[in-house]
Amino acid sequence: MKELELKYGCNPNQKPSKIYVANGQELPITVLSGKPGYINFLDAFNGWQLVKELKEATGLPAATSFKHVSPAGAAVGLPLDDTLKKIYWVDDMGDLSPLACAYARARGADRMSSFGDFIALSDVCDKDTASIIKREVSDGVIAPGYTEEALKILKGKKNGNYNVIQIDPDYRPAPLEHKEVYGITFEQGRQELPINDELLSHIVTENKDLPDAAKMDLKISLITLKYTQSNSVCFVKGGQAIGIGAGQQSRVHCTRLAGQKADNWFLRQSPKVLGLQFVDGIGRADRDNAIDVYIGSEYMDVLAEGAWQRIFKVKPEVFTEEEKRAWLNQMTGVTVGSDAFFPFSDNIERAKKSGVKYIAEPGGSVRDDLVIETCNKYGMVMAFTGIRLFHH
Protein backbone atom coordinates (compact mmCIF):
# COMPACT_ATOMS: atom_id res chain seq x y z
CA MET A 1 0.00 0.00 0.00
CA LYS A 2 1.56 3.27 -1.15
CA GLU A 3 -1.06 5.67 0.18
CA LEU A 4 -3.99 5.64 2.55
CA GLU A 5 -7.02 7.87 2.12
CA LEU A 6 -8.27 9.41 5.36
CA LYS A 7 -11.74 10.66 6.24
CA TYR A 8 -10.44 14.22 6.75
CA GLY A 9 -7.45 16.18 8.07
CA CYS A 10 -7.17 17.90 11.46
CA ASN A 11 -10.82 18.99 11.22
CA PRO A 12 -13.87 17.63 9.35
CA ASN A 13 -13.82 20.48 6.82
CA GLN A 14 -10.21 19.76 5.77
CA LYS A 15 -10.63 17.46 2.77
CA PRO A 16 -9.23 15.59 0.98
CA SER A 17 -6.72 13.90 3.28
CA LYS A 18 -4.25 11.03 2.93
CA ILE A 19 -0.85 9.76 4.07
CA TYR A 20 1.91 8.53 1.74
CA VAL A 21 5.70 8.39 1.43
CA ALA A 22 6.96 11.12 -0.92
CA ASN A 23 9.38 8.88 -2.84
CA GLY A 24 6.60 6.50 -3.77
CA GLN A 25 7.69 3.58 -1.64
CA GLU A 26 5.29 1.40 0.33
CA LEU A 27 3.86 2.71 3.59
CA PRO A 28 5.56 0.95 6.54
CA ILE A 29 2.24 0.27 8.30
CA THR A 30 -0.71 -2.07 8.13
CA VAL A 31 -4.08 -1.13 9.63
CA LEU A 32 -5.35 -4.26 11.37
CA SER A 33 -8.54 -2.72 12.77
CA GLY A 34 -10.48 0.53 12.65
CA LYS A 35 -9.98 3.61 10.48
CA PRO A 36 -7.25 5.82 12.01
CA GLY A 37 -7.51 9.53 11.29
CA TYR A 38 -5.04 12.30 10.52
CA ILE A 39 -4.29 13.21 14.15
CA ASN A 40 -4.24 9.51 15.09
CA PHE A 41 -1.38 8.97 12.64
CA LEU A 42 0.49 12.06 13.86
CA ASP A 43 0.32 10.64 17.39
CA ALA A 44 1.14 7.13 16.22
CA PHE A 45 4.28 8.02 14.26
CA ASN A 46 5.63 10.41 16.90
CA GLY A 47 4.86 7.92 19.63
CA TRP A 48 6.51 5.06 17.76
CA GLN A 49 9.73 7.03 17.41
CA LEU A 50 9.68 7.81 21.13
CA VAL A 51 9.26 4.22 22.32
CA LYS A 52 11.71 2.90 19.75
CA GLU A 53 14.37 5.26 21.12
CA LEU A 54 13.48 4.47 24.74
CA LYS A 55 13.99 0.77 24.03
CA GLU A 56 17.31 1.45 22.30
CA ALA A 57 18.53 3.71 25.15
CA THR A 58 17.48 1.53 28.08
CA GLY A 59 17.15 -2.01 26.74
CA LEU A 60 13.67 -2.20 28.29
CA PRO A 61 10.21 -2.44 26.71
CA ALA A 62 8.66 1.01 26.45
CA ALA A 63 5.24 2.61 26.04
CA THR A 64 3.87 6.08 25.57
CA SER A 65 0.43 7.65 25.81
CA PHE A 66 -0.02 10.45 23.25
CA LYS A 67 -2.62 13.22 23.01
CA HIS A 68 -2.62 15.95 20.35
CA VAL A 69 0.94 15.27 19.17
CA SER A 70 2.56 15.39 22.61
CA PRO A 71 3.08 12.59 25.12
CA ALA A 72 0.92 12.62 28.25
CA GLY A 73 3.14 9.86 29.63
CA ALA A 74 6.10 7.67 28.70
CA ALA A 75 7.75 4.81 30.58
CA VAL A 76 9.87 1.68 30.45
CA GLY A 77 8.83 -1.72 31.73
CA LEU A 78 9.97 -1.80 35.34
CA PRO A 79 7.88 -3.78 37.85
CA LEU A 80 5.07 -2.00 39.70
CA ASP A 81 4.89 -1.91 43.48
CA ASP A 82 1.54 -2.34 45.22
CA THR A 83 0.93 1.40 45.55
CA LEU A 84 1.53 2.09 41.87
CA LYS A 85 -0.68 -0.84 40.90
CA LYS A 86 -3.47 0.72 42.93
CA ILE A 87 -3.20 4.28 41.60
CA TYR A 88 -2.94 2.95 38.03
CA TRP A 89 -6.05 0.78 38.60
CA VAL A 90 -4.31 -2.51 37.75
CA ASP A 91 -4.11 -3.96 41.28
CA ASP A 92 -6.66 -6.65 40.34
CA MET A 93 -4.65 -7.95 37.37
CA GLY A 94 -1.91 -9.95 39.11
CA ASP A 95 1.65 -9.97 37.81
CA LEU A 96 1.99 -8.06 34.55
CA SER A 97 4.45 -8.41 31.70
CA PRO A 98 7.20 -5.77 31.39
CA LEU A 99 5.42 -4.19 28.39
CA ALA A 100 2.14 -4.04 30.31
CA CYS A 101 3.95 -2.40 33.23
CA ALA A 102 5.35 0.18 30.82
CA TYR A 103 1.88 1.06 29.51
CA ALA A 104 0.33 1.07 32.98
CA ARG A 105 2.98 3.64 33.97
CA ALA A 106 2.64 5.71 30.80
CA ARG A 107 -1.15 5.82 31.05
CA GLY A 108 -1.29 6.13 34.83
CA ALA A 109 1.08 9.01 35.55
CA ASP A 110 -1.31 11.69 34.25
CA ARG A 111 -4.63 9.95 33.79
CA MET A 112 -6.51 13.18 33.13
CA SER A 113 -4.34 13.98 30.10
CA SER A 114 -4.19 10.37 28.88
CA PHE A 115 -7.96 10.04 28.53
CA GLY A 116 -8.62 9.16 24.88
CA ASP A 117 -4.94 8.57 24.11
CA PHE A 118 -3.14 7.00 21.18
CA ILE A 119 -0.72 4.35 22.42
CA ALA A 120 2.70 3.39 21.07
CA LEU A 121 4.48 0.19 22.16
CA SER A 122 8.10 -0.73 21.48
CA ASP A 123 7.49 -4.48 21.51
CA VAL A 124 4.94 -6.97 20.25
CA CYS A 125 1.70 -6.28 22.13
CA ASP A 126 0.88 -9.16 24.48
CA LYS A 127 -2.29 -10.25 26.25
CA ASP A 128 -1.48 -8.39 29.48
CA THR A 129 -0.98 -5.09 27.67
CA ALA A 130 -4.08 -5.53 25.53
CA SER A 131 -6.11 -6.31 28.65
CA ILE A 132 -5.13 -2.96 30.20
CA ILE A 133 -5.88 -1.14 26.94
CA LYS A 134 -9.30 -2.82 26.78
CA ARG A 135 -10.29 -1.09 30.04
CA GLU A 136 -9.30 2.43 29.05
CA VAL A 137 -10.83 5.09 26.84
CA SER A 138 -8.34 5.18 23.99
CA ASP A 139 -8.30 5.98 20.26
CA GLY A 140 -5.80 3.37 19.13
CA VAL A 141 -2.42 1.68 19.34
CA ILE A 142 0.66 1.21 17.18
CA ALA A 143 3.17 -1.60 17.73
CA PRO A 144 5.59 -3.76 15.72
CA GLY A 145 3.26 -6.73 16.16
CA TYR A 146 0.49 -8.35 18.18
CA THR A 147 0.06 -11.81 19.65
CA GLU A 148 -3.04 -13.67 18.53
CA GLU A 149 -4.66 -13.22 21.95
CA ALA A 150 -3.84 -9.52 22.10
CA LEU A 151 -5.20 -8.82 18.64
CA LYS A 152 -8.46 -10.61 19.44
CA ILE A 153 -8.90 -8.45 22.57
CA LEU A 154 -8.12 -5.20 20.74
CA LYS A 155 -10.34 -6.00 17.74
CA GLY A 156 -13.24 -6.44 20.15
CA LYS A 157 -12.85 -2.92 21.54
CA LYS A 158 -15.24 -0.15 20.37
CA ASN A 159 -17.48 -2.71 18.71
CA GLY A 160 -14.66 -3.68 16.37
CA ASN A 161 -13.74 -0.11 15.45
CA TYR A 162 -10.69 0.34 17.68
CA ASN A 163 -7.66 1.52 15.69
CA VAL A 164 -4.85 -1.04 15.60
CA ILE A 165 -1.76 -0.28 13.52
CA GLN A 166 1.22 -2.54 12.90
CA ILE A 167 4.47 -0.83 11.90
CA ASP A 168 7.51 -2.36 10.25
CA PRO A 169 10.25 -2.06 12.92
CA ASP A 170 12.92 -2.07 10.21
CA TYR A 171 11.53 1.01 8.44
CA ARG A 172 13.99 3.91 8.24
CA PRO A 173 12.84 7.32 6.95
CA ALA A 174 14.87 9.49 4.60
CA PRO A 175 17.50 11.68 6.32
CA LEU A 176 15.74 14.85 5.14
CA GLU A 177 12.19 15.67 6.23
CA HIS A 178 9.74 18.18 4.79
CA LYS A 179 6.79 20.15 6.09
CA GLU A 180 4.52 22.52 4.21
CA VAL A 181 3.09 25.69 5.78
CA TYR A 182 1.00 28.16 3.77
CA GLY A 183 2.22 26.61 0.53
CA ILE A 184 5.88 26.96 1.55
CA THR A 185 7.93 23.79 1.95
CA PHE A 186 10.36 23.57 4.88
CA GLU A 187 13.25 21.12 4.71
CA GLN A 188 15.53 19.99 7.53
CA GLY A 189 17.68 17.06 8.56
CA ARG A 190 15.89 14.64 10.86
CA GLN A 191 16.57 14.92 14.59
CA GLU A 192 18.76 11.84 14.86
CA LEU A 193 20.70 12.88 17.97
CA PRO A 194 21.36 9.78 20.11
CA ILE A 195 20.41 10.26 23.75
CA ASN A 196 23.09 8.37 25.69
CA ASP A 197 25.37 8.56 28.73
CA GLU A 198 27.91 10.67 26.86
CA LEU A 199 25.31 13.43 26.52
CA LEU A 200 25.15 13.56 30.33
CA SER A 201 28.90 13.61 30.95
CA HIS A 202 29.40 17.40 31.23
CA ILE A 203 28.35 17.97 34.83
CA VAL A 204 28.66 21.63 35.80
CA THR A 205 27.59 21.52 39.46
CA GLU A 206 29.67 20.91 42.57
CA ASN A 207 27.82 17.66 43.15
CA LYS A 208 28.84 15.31 40.35
CA ASP A 209 27.35 12.08 41.71
CA LEU A 210 25.00 10.88 38.98
CA PRO A 211 23.90 7.29 39.72
CA ASP A 212 22.91 4.89 36.96
CA ALA A 213 19.20 5.04 37.86
CA ALA A 214 19.25 8.83 37.51
CA LYS A 215 21.08 8.55 34.17
CA MET A 216 18.33 6.28 32.88
CA ASP A 217 15.64 8.67 34.09
CA LEU A 218 17.38 11.65 32.47
CA LYS A 219 17.59 9.76 29.18
CA ILE A 220 13.88 8.98 29.41
CA SER A 221 13.23 12.68 30.04
CA LEU A 222 15.31 13.89 27.08
CA ILE A 223 13.89 11.30 24.66
CA THR A 224 10.39 12.28 25.74
CA LEU A 225 11.22 15.93 25.10
CA LYS A 226 12.37 15.11 21.55
CA TYR A 227 8.75 14.34 20.69
CA THR A 228 6.95 16.93 22.86
CA GLN A 229 5.71 20.25 21.48
CA SER A 230 8.05 23.03 22.62
CA ASN A 231 8.70 24.65 24.96
CA SER A 232 8.78 21.55 27.13
CA VAL A 233 10.02 20.28 30.48
CA CYS A 234 9.76 16.68 31.68
CA PHE A 235 9.96 15.29 35.25
CA VAL A 236 10.89 11.59 35.52
CA LYS A 237 11.20 9.19 38.43
CA GLY A 238 11.61 5.42 38.56
CA GLY A 239 11.62 4.84 34.82
CA GLN A 240 8.59 6.92 33.91
CA ALA A 241 7.59 10.48 33.14
CA ILE A 242 5.56 11.80 36.09
CA GLY A 243 4.95 15.31 34.75
CA ILE A 244 5.24 16.77 31.25
CA GLY A 245 4.84 20.49 30.64
CA ALA A 246 4.31 20.97 26.90
CA GLY A 247 3.73 23.78 24.45
CA GLN A 248 4.12 26.78 26.76
CA GLN A 249 5.70 30.02 25.54
CA SER A 250 7.32 30.63 28.94
CA ARG A 251 9.78 28.02 30.20
CA VAL A 252 8.94 28.55 33.85
CA HIS A 253 5.30 27.91 32.98
CA CYS A 254 6.44 24.56 31.51
CA THR A 255 8.29 23.83 34.73
CA ARG A 256 5.31 24.79 36.88
CA LEU A 257 2.93 22.72 34.77
CA ALA A 258 5.20 19.67 34.77
CA GLY A 259 5.91 20.13 38.47
CA GLN A 260 2.22 20.30 39.34
CA LYS A 261 1.56 17.12 37.38
CA ALA A 262 4.45 15.43 39.22
CA ASP A 263 3.04 16.63 42.54
CA ASN A 264 -0.39 15.24 41.64
CA TRP A 265 1.20 11.88 40.78
CA PHE A 266 2.78 11.71 44.23
CA LEU A 267 -0.27 13.04 46.08
CA ARG A 268 -2.33 10.22 44.57
CA GLN A 269 -0.05 7.83 46.51
CA SER A 270 -0.81 9.44 49.88
CA PRO A 271 -2.84 7.49 52.46
CA LYS A 272 -5.52 10.16 52.36
CA VAL A 273 -6.15 9.59 48.63
CA LEU A 274 -5.64 5.82 48.72
CA GLY A 275 -8.26 5.68 51.47
CA LEU A 276 -11.02 7.41 49.47
CA GLN A 277 -14.18 5.29 49.38
CA PHE A 278 -15.98 5.64 46.05
CA VAL A 279 -19.59 4.74 45.46
CA ASP A 280 -20.22 1.46 43.71
CA GLY A 281 -20.37 1.63 39.93
CA ILE A 282 -18.51 4.93 39.53
CA GLY A 283 -16.79 5.17 36.15
CA ARG A 284 -13.00 5.21 35.82
CA ALA A 285 -12.98 8.69 34.30
CA ASP A 286 -15.31 10.06 37.00
CA ARG A 287 -13.08 8.56 39.68
CA ASP A 288 -9.95 10.09 38.10
CA ASN A 289 -11.62 13.47 37.84
CA ALA A 290 -12.81 13.35 41.46
CA ILE A 291 -9.28 12.61 42.68
CA ASP A 292 -7.85 15.41 40.54
CA VAL A 293 -10.31 17.90 42.02
CA TYR A 294 -9.92 16.58 45.58
CA ILE A 295 -6.15 17.09 45.64
CA GLY A 296 -6.42 20.51 43.98
CA SER A 297 -7.47 23.94 45.16
CA GLU A 298 -11.13 23.52 44.14
CA TYR A 299 -11.74 20.51 46.39
CA MET A 300 -15.10 21.85 47.56
CA ASP A 301 -16.48 21.00 44.12
CA VAL A 302 -16.45 17.35 45.24
CA LEU A 303 -16.87 17.86 49.00
CA ALA A 304 -19.88 20.19 48.99
CA GLU A 305 -23.18 18.90 50.37
CA GLY A 306 -25.09 17.21 47.57
CA ALA A 307 -21.89 16.68 45.53
CA TRP A 308 -19.86 14.27 47.65
CA GLN A 309 -22.76 11.82 48.01
CA ARG A 310 -22.69 11.17 44.24
CA ILE A 311 -18.99 10.26 44.39
CA PHE A 312 -18.04 8.91 47.82
CA LYS A 313 -19.56 6.47 50.25
CA VAL A 314 -18.10 8.44 53.13
CA LYS A 315 -17.39 12.18 53.01
CA PRO A 316 -13.60 12.66 52.90
CA GLU A 317 -11.81 15.10 55.14
CA VAL A 318 -10.23 18.12 53.45
CA PHE A 319 -6.67 17.42 52.30
CA THR A 320 -5.15 20.58 53.72
CA GLU A 321 -2.31 22.52 52.13
CA GLU A 322 -0.13 21.73 55.17
CA GLU A 323 -0.83 18.00 54.84
CA LYS A 324 -0.12 18.05 51.12
CA ARG A 325 3.15 19.91 51.60
CA ALA A 326 4.25 17.50 54.33
CA TRP A 327 3.56 14.55 51.99
CA LEU A 328 5.28 16.18 49.00
CA ASN A 329 8.38 16.85 51.10
CA GLN A 330 8.94 13.09 51.05
CA MET A 331 9.33 13.03 47.25
CA THR A 332 13.04 12.83 46.42
CA GLY A 333 15.39 11.73 43.66
CA VAL A 334 13.31 13.20 40.83
CA THR A 335 15.00 14.06 37.52
CA VAL A 336 14.06 16.86 35.14
CA GLY A 337 15.03 17.61 31.56
CA SER A 338 14.43 20.75 29.54
CA ASP A 339 14.37 21.05 25.75
CA ALA A 340 16.26 24.38 25.96
CA PHE A 341 18.24 26.21 28.60
CA PHE A 342 16.71 27.48 31.83
CA PRO A 343 16.94 31.27 31.45
CA PHE A 344 16.32 32.02 35.14
CA SER A 345 16.92 30.27 38.44
CA ASP A 346 13.18 30.32 39.22
CA ASN A 347 12.90 27.07 37.26
CA ILE A 348 15.30 25.40 39.70
CA GLU A 349 13.45 26.80 42.71
CA ARG A 350 10.19 25.35 41.38
CA ALA A 351 11.80 22.01 40.53
CA LYS A 352 13.16 21.73 44.08
CA LYS A 353 9.58 21.84 45.45
CA SER A 354 8.86 18.63 43.54
CA GLY A 355 11.87 16.71 44.84
CA VAL A 356 14.19 17.27 41.87
CA LYS A 357 17.79 16.17 42.46
CA TYR A 358 19.08 15.65 38.90
CA ILE A 359 18.82 17.99 35.91
CA ALA A 360 19.77 17.89 32.22
CA GLU A 361 19.51 20.98 30.02
CA PRO A 362 21.51 22.39 27.10
CA GLY A 363 23.12 25.33 28.91
CA GLY A 364 24.00 28.50 27.05
CA SER A 365 21.99 31.10 28.97
CA VAL A 366 23.66 34.38 29.93
CA ARG A 367 22.48 33.49 33.45
CA ASP A 368 23.95 29.97 33.55
CA ASP A 369 26.04 30.99 36.56
CA LEU A 370 22.93 31.86 38.58
CA VAL A 371 21.21 28.63 37.56
CA ILE A 372 24.28 26.60 38.59
CA GLU A 373 24.54 28.55 41.85
CA THR A 374 20.94 27.68 42.71
CA CYS A 375 21.56 24.00 41.93
CA ASN A 376 24.63 24.08 44.19
CA LYS A 377 22.55 25.65 46.98
CA TYR A 378 20.36 22.54 47.00
CA GLY A 379 23.09 19.96 46.30
CA MET A 380 21.63 19.12 42.89
CA VAL A 381 23.48 17.48 40.01
CA MET A 382 23.13 19.24 36.65
CA ALA A 383 24.52 18.19 33.28
CA PHE A 384 24.78 20.54 30.31
CA THR A 385 23.99 18.54 27.19
CA GLY A 386 24.99 21.29 24.76
CA ILE A 387 22.09 20.46 22.44
CA ARG A 388 18.60 21.88 22.07
CA LEU A 389 15.62 19.59 21.52
CA PHE A 390 12.89 21.84 20.09
CA HIS A 391 10.04 20.01 18.41
CA HIS A 392 7.34 21.65 16.27
- What is the number of E strands? 15
CATH class of the largest domain: Alpha Beta
- CATH H-level name of the largest domain... which superfamily? AICAR transformylase, duplication domain
Order of helices and strands: EEEHEEHHHEHEHEEEHEEHHHHHEHEHE
For the termini, the CA-CA separation is 28 Å
Assign the CATH architecture of the largest domain.
3-Layer(aba) Sandwich
Instruction: Sketch the major β-sheet.
Output: 6 strands, mixed
Radius of gyration: 21 Å
- What is the beta-strand fraction? 15-25%
Task: Report the average pLDDT across residues.
Answer: 97
Question: Low-confidence spans: pLDDT under 50, at least 5 residues?
Answer: none
Give the spatial strand order of the biggest sheet. 3-8-7-6-4-5
Question: Helix proportion of residues, in percent?
Answer: 25-40%
**Could you say what the CATH topology of the largest domain is called?**
Cytidine Deaminase, domain 2
Structural class based on helices, strands and sheet pairing: alpha/beta
Shape call: globular
Compute the number of helices. Answer: 14
Tally of individual domains:
3
